[in-house]
Write a structure and sequence with these properties.
Blueprint: H1 3-10, H2 14-21, H3 29-39, H4 43-47, H5 56-63, H6 66-69, H7 79-88, H8 90-106, H9 111-125, H10 131-143, H11 150-160, E1 164-166, E2 181-184, E3 189-192, H12 198-213, H13 231-248, H14 251-262, H15 270-279, H16 283-288, H17 292-297, E4 302-310, E5 315-323, H18 344-350, E6 359-367, E7 373-382, E8 389-398, H19 401-406, E9 416-420, H20 440-461
Parallel strand pairs: 1-3, 6-9
Antiparallel strand pairs: 2-3, 4-5, 4-8, 6-7, 7-8
Length: 463
Amino acid sequence: MLLTDLSKHTGISVSYLNEIEKAKKYPRPEKINTLAKALNVSAAYLISDELPPKYAPVTDLLQSNFLQELPLELFGIDLAKIVEMVANAPSKVGAFISTLVDLSRLYGQQAEHFYLSAMRAYQEMYNNFFPELEQLADSFLIEHNFKTEIKTLKSVLETEFHYTIIPDGLNKYPELTEFRSLFIPASNTLLLNSALSESQLRYLYAKEIGFNYLKITERPLTNKLLKISNFELVINNFNANYFATAILIPGTEFKKDLSIFINKEKWDPSLFIQWIDKYHVSPEILFQRFNLLPVYLGLDKIFFLRVIKDIKKNRFEIDKELHLSHRHDPQANKLSENYCRRWLSVAILTDWSNNDTFKVDIQRSHYHGTKNEYIVISIAKKAPYNDNLLVSVTAGLYLDELSKSKIKFLNDPAISVTEVNVTCERCAIMDCLVRAAPPKVLIEKEHRRVINQAIDRIVKSEK
């Protein structure tokens, strides 16, 4: 029945009926009775929150706070539109919702995974560059004469934001040895792990300043996100991180460094160690500032990975990734497959020596069976607080005509050119000497192809 027809039967305006249908208005009891009579159902039926069994997924969705918790507004999605879509095709949408729920259960997804995935998607949408945060960081630097030494940052926290900082405050809590800090809101006290390095302490102070300078109230209390109750907590933590990185590595200064780097005729790994020393930051923080490449140099096809190696298990895991411009070839998977051992981010950890503090390497990676090629730079180090783990952070830049014309050292013979793939289980490079597993996915695919050919042949012969 069209709304115009229902309006004639009930005397209720089309606009009001439309608002009822879209859940913008809830009708008074007398109007519910009028609607029920016109639709030939009971009033109790209209207001019941029970749906037939085939619509159970829709019921679960509408009764949960799942949609309300998702940061839909960041992506320009109107909640009312989703409700309208559910109302227009509940069977199909129900099947789709059930599929999403099953996938989330299959891969052990929880609400916090959705939040973190949404945050990563948000970063990728904006090429991980946020002008407002950059401007606020610049304002802070100007106000403090561009001084970001540890003593200056500590002084800002104590004098401007009235912090009490206890350098060994976490030492008496053995269950918190893996944490770098704990903030006590009631007393504005910051408890620190006494084992922090200079770069860790400097970054931690900068991030605490970020929470205060940006006037963030809902924030995590530890340096790690433990309990993620809503998306605002995730984005607030990201904003403080971004601000901290921007004041430790000022954009105008690092822009000059990047320009010098890509205009060198020869690959120079020492530059990365120089930058780490110059800005007193970790390799991961340094690579975060590669978000300036798209803005200042037009190089926007970039991926970032952080790979963890468990030395005892000889197992590699991607625990952070970011893809700018589009989804690039190296990606995390939750299928327990083995990442390509030819990846620089993996190989640099395999070749690690205990005598190393940082290890820097470069590779031109060509993805087997595609035209995709990247210039990839990795920095490896020991993981803090765990001698059984190694960490590599990697930035990869897609090689197209623009990047090939701008990166002067690209054809340096010192740079190895390596054919790579995504995982061993899906790799057709049969002569690979570092393969960690057989190509079982390809073997199964070939098996199905042979069976389908046999079926086609039999069907044709039996006509």
